[in-house]
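Bumping with the actual sequence this time:
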Amino acid sequence: MFHKVLIANRGEIALRIQRACRELGIPTVAVHSTADAQAMHVRLADESVCIGPPSARDSYLNVAAILSAAAVTGADAIHPGYGFLSENANFAEMVEAHGLTFIGPSSAHIRMMGDKITAKTAMASLGVPLVPGSDGEVKDLDEARAVADRIKYPVLIKAAAGGGGRGMKVAHSEDDLEEAWRVARTEARTAFGNDAVYIEKYLDRPRHIEMQVMADSFGHVVHFGERDCSLQRRHQKLLEEAGSPALTGAERDALGATVTAGLAKLGYRNAGTLEFLYQDGQFSFIEMNTRLQVEHPVTEMVCGVDLVREQIRIAAGQALGYTQADVTFSGHAIECRVTAEDPETFMPTPGLVSVFHAPGGLGVRVDSALYAGYVVPPFYDSLVAKLIVHAPTRPEAIARMRRALAEFAVVGIKTTIPLHQRIMNDPEFQAGDYTIHWLEQFVERLAED
């Protein structure tokens, strides 16, 4: 096992990794910007190192500073969490080149899945179903028109190196195609330094379904079921469930068998999440995230497995020690992402938290780095807490989440707690009747009332 782990992240995910390390008896090093000097992950770490000013570019994305911190403190492994450098293949390579262990997949697999075109090609070769679309990059408008004519409108133009909705545009007809193609390429070039785009059939009422996997270095791959991440605004997830109210156990098992067999052939290692669109009983692969997901707690709640602990064990060279038959699913879990945003305008609301009271009770979990007196900085992602509940059934989980949200007190800044309360009380959500477009329509209805 590792002697010391440096956590190259901040906020609640840094705390989450600290907890797993502590239970394994591994000391931790927290790196932080000057803006995070009083952050909870810094206060609770065994050691801490300031790596730069508030800007993420100069601190949490500062590879030289992070590697120097690892050298100074004697860390022998680095956990990147999610976001920041977690899917940066060059960073993973540099970590290994400095004699450290990167707690995550190989740099080759990070690079492969980081390019959406390469990822789709790889998954198609492994028998994973895809959304109909181009065979690779669409290099000019004539090719774009030919692909759109073949798969029929509406179509979705997507950045090959994209994510988070950037470099993604819908063309509903041939009249829309030229502008959508040009705008998508411009956004892709600006956001990712790569203007390559590809085209997929635009599905009008899909759900966003993820499959969580874990693989060791000995060829063993298991899945931990699906998550329904369809409640999104501008392609950003706000709420997740495990399992999906739209899937049957048989559908989960079939998808899981395809995914694990494919990743075993690929020689994949550590945690990963495959994302699919699901419509009319069909799954279509869209991308793979080669890291821990923000919503991993809902999977942990229904499976009873510490996914971060498994990441660390596998990176240390240990085998999974169990098979797919040993993985069981119990009850239903829901996660609400609480962000420091106005619940109506979604404008960021950094500032002083004067009161913080987390809900509790049976089946309630809060992953947060907030505390009374903490100042939420304006420099980073607005996520400040994840509220997760678990119960025997989905209706009971909704009731528990409603109760927990009512107990949750964050005073001094506005948060999205009121929005989550409204979602929990909505009959369509309670019925599980929603798609990836539902939340934006729901927010529009709230604005009109």
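The tokens above came from a reply further down the thread. The CA atoms of residues 95 and 102 lie 6 Å apart.
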